[in-house]
Amino acid sequence: MIVSLELRPGGVIDERRLMEQLGIGRTPIREALRTLAQERLVEVYPRRGMFVTRVEIRDLASLAEVRTVLESSAARLAAERATDEDRDTVASLLDELERHEELDQRELMALDERIHRQVYRAAHNQFLEASLEQYYVLALRIWYLALDQARELEQAVLDHREILEAIRDGDAERADQAMRRHVVEFEEAMRRVLVGA
User: Fold this and answer.
1) Taking 80 as the threshold, does the pLDDT of residue 40 lie above it?
2) Which of 1, 102, 130, 159 is the most interior residue, by most CB within 10 Å?
3) CA gap 69, 186 in Å, rounded
4) What is the pTM of this model?
5) DSSP for the chain, written as a single string
6) CB-count exposure of residue 116 (10 Å: 0-12, 13-18, 19+)
7) Looking at domain 59-195, which of 3.40.50.300, 3.30.450.20, 3.30.70.2860, 1.20.120.530 is its CATH number?
């Protein structure tokens, strides 16, 4: 709800409404909101309430810097450590990429998410995976801002082909470089869409 911008950035979080919508009690809601605050998705102001963090375009460059380093490392490790099961999943994702023309923007985003999460898992480093999940979610919120005007970003999703092929082939250097290019080019495409820069 926060990532997809259903709960508007800057909006007040109504605990009662969340309890009703999700059918769970106050304690699990508060625990979840505390976790979301640690992940920079919710801001807590004592005696004022909780608010969905704003999506700041200026964060895009900083996120790209961090993601470039971490994701290229994850891609390298995935190429080196991928199991047969990981490689089967990579092959399935490559098949899905071949059908990209049939996908709308939300389906492309979902495919992008599955690809990145598979790279994180295939690196077989739980700490790297947890860090990347956090940064990916923050970047995903920015992508949702551009959802309706982001057909240009389809190419960024197609760039995953080289990353996945390198992981499948066990080519760590190629996986690293392809992921590095992908994150940088995606940030540039996003900036063009959102601010015309």
Assistant:
1) yes
2) 159
3) 14
4) 0.83
5) -TTTTSS-TTPBP-HHHHHHHHT--HHHHHHHHHHHHHTTSEEEETTTEEEEPP--TTHHHHHHHHHHHHHHHHHHHHHHH--HHHHHHHHHHHHHHHTGGG--HHHHHHHHHHHHHHHHHHTT-HHHHHHHHHHHHHHHHHHHHTGGG-GGGHHHHHTHHHHHHHHHHT-HHHHHHHHHHHHHHHHHHHHHHHH--
6) buried
7) 1.20.120.530
The predicted structure's pLDDT at residue 188:
86
Structure tokens at 57: 């375009």
Task: Give the number of residues written for the chain.
Answer: 197
Q: Scanning the structure block, which residue is given the tokens 């389809």? A: 154
CB atoms inside a 10 Å sphere around CB 142: 18
> 26-38 and 15-22 helices cross at what angle (nearest 10)?
110
